[in-house]
Fold 3-hydroxybutyrate dehydrogenase.
Amino acid sequence: MLAGKTALITGSTSGIGKAVALQLAADGANIVLNGFGDAKEIETLRAGIEKDHKVKAAFSGADLTKPEAIEAMMTEAAGTFGGIDILVNNAGTQFVSPLEDFPVEKWNLIIALNLSAAFHTTRLALPHMKAKKWGRIVNMGSAHAKVASPFKAAYVAAKHGLSGLTKTTALEGATHGVRCNTICPGYVFTPLVEGQIADTAKARGMTEDQVKNDVLLAAQPTKEFVTAEEVAAFASFLCSPAAAQINGADLSIDGGWTAQ
Ligand code: NAD
């Protein structure tokens, strides 16, 4: 379905981004991986994608909190593949703290990574997409792009901001064959959520089991975590011809969380 296209998935060395990269490779796209992690494991992932799916796969270790690193990553990807056709802005991090104690450097980090990085990759990817008259941008939002939870000021602000960036991108790309949407997952069991469990337990004075069952899954009526593979399948659908008229939408995959 995506043969001949190139997909850049930020934060794809782990969790949701990795699942999206594997799915888009299975769909036939060349892949640009990005993120941090063990160099050997990343190379195993990259080489495995090439071998299993007969596509090309590259890796950039760019730190997306740094605009100049994003520019270098985009230039390198364009040099290797001619340009990015599918951009999945997925890299993100979380920090849990009451607002009055929220460390300023954590606020700045989360806004830079979860919001500003998507602005930079999008502005740099758009000229190629417009020239090709085809592009797909998937922004990894969250239920927290629609509703808030206490102690997550920076994350909630960044994800609401990302939803605004999606809508503006969707309008500017609409007549150029470019589509941009936000996927809004509920809780997906990944390393990011594992970390939050410990932090939330500390912030709320609860045990980790209480956080899992009474805080995280309390919000999710299905009482089940979303899987990274389900989110990846959703991203794949948004790149398919059937999704051609889905544009500028905040699309929930949250077990009913935001229906309440
Ligand atoms: P994760 O921690 O498993 O993966 C995060 C990825 O981002 C990793 O590849 C990491 O190396 C990369 N990364 C971190 N800092 C980076 C930086 N400065 N520059 C480049 N890459 C960097 O997280 P995840 O749970 O897979 O989350 C992925 C996205 O999905 C995030 O945007 C997150 O907000 C969103 N999300 C997650 C959940 C969930 O429950 N896990 C729910 C809703 C939305």
Q: What stands out?
A: The mean pLDDT is 97. The helical segments are 15-26, 39-53, 67-81, 104-132, 153-173, 191-204, 208-216, 228-238. The chain is about 50% helix and 15% strand.
